[in-house]
Amino acid sequence: MEIEKVNKLMEEGLSCGQVVLRYFEDKINLDRKVLEKLSAGFEAGGFNGGKCGALLGAYTVLGLLKYNFDDESKVEMIKCIYSLNENFKKEFKTDICEQMLGKNPSTEIGLKEAMSEGKIQSTCPRAITLAIEEVEKCL
């Protein structure tokens, strides 16, 4: 994994899911704006503090790069997702954005508190890098 590439994408102001998709843009062969649109709704756990956007981005990448409309590739994709989920929960104890941050970033107050307490700055980059590393293991 290229940490400089991740940092550059984060500096662009992309959400966690958008960073994960854009990281793999050369392999996916879709326009970067399309990738950003595909993952725009993943931010802040789907804008309700739900499933981590980095995970949702990783699922999307795996679907785009592993699934070929046949049972064999679907099974391989599912195995990758199971492994990703298992390793993510080992690291964070949960895959729910609000629980990971201790605040709901989809609310104005929750976002402000998570930012001021440094939770987004410390948790989200770790979630993004873990999601990317897990996808790379499957490719």
TrEMBL record:
InterPro entries: CGCAxxGCC_motif (IPR010181). This is C-GCAxxG-C-C family protein. It comes from the Bacteria.
